[in-house]
Amino acid sequence: MAHLVWQDDLNTGIEEVDNQHRRIVEMINHLYDVEQKDDKEELRKVLVDLVDYTQSHFAFEETLMEEAGYRFSRAHKKVHELFIRRVEEYRMRFDAGENIVQELRDTLTRWLLSHIRNEDAAYAETVKASMNALSTDQGWLSRSLKKFFG
Ligand SMILES: [Fe+2]
Ligand SMILES: [Fe+2]
């Protein structure tokens, strides 16, 4: 599988979320590049970064949804948790010496793109409306970003 290319139907219209999704796509592409080099240490670092970043993104998204009072935020959070658990299993298999990179990359690609197009797209309207209402509180977004991404 070659590099992923960003497609417009992946946009939620929420700038911060779209930037984070783009970054995840870049990281998946980077994983592909590093895989070609066959450097296990570097590969492990890229995997850990990808998982950490995805987890921060999920936490950020969950805050947005809760803050907006989105009615399916708990279900969405559950979906994130199940996915993280799946990815953790890959990490364990990797640490046990199995070559899971190709499989992980395919799973990540399929799962994340479908999640962005469906579950993430579904909260966009509610979150956008709430963000507009909150726009007087300029500090809120930067505080949340700082909290999850440092
Ligand atoms: Fe997302
Ligand atoms: Fe999500």
Q: Can you list the ligands bound to this structure?
A: fe (ii) ion
Strand content: under 5%
Task: Supply the CATH architecture.
Answer: Up-down Bundle
**Cα distance, first to last residue?**
33 Å
Could you tell me the number of beta strands?
0
Could you list the spans in which at least 5 consecutive residues all have pLDDT below 50?
Answer: none
Supply the number of helical segments: 5
Shape: elongated
* CATH domain class: Mainly Alpha
Class by alpha and beta content: mainly alpha
Question: What would you report as the Rg, rounded to the nearest angstrom?
Answer: 16 Å
- Overall pLDDT, averaged? 90
Oligomer: single chain
Q: Quickly count the domains.
A: 1
Question: What's the CATH topology label?
Answer: Four Helix Bundle (Hemerythrin (Met), subunit A)
User: How is the biggest beta sheet arranged?
Assistant: none
Q: What would you give as the CATH superfamily?
A: Hemerythrin-like
Helix content: over 70%
SSE arrangement, N to C? HHHHH
Protein name: Bacteriohemerythrin
GO molecular function: iron ion binding; oxygen carrier activity
Organism: Ventosimonas gracilis
Keywords: Iron, Metal-binding, Oxygen transport, Transport
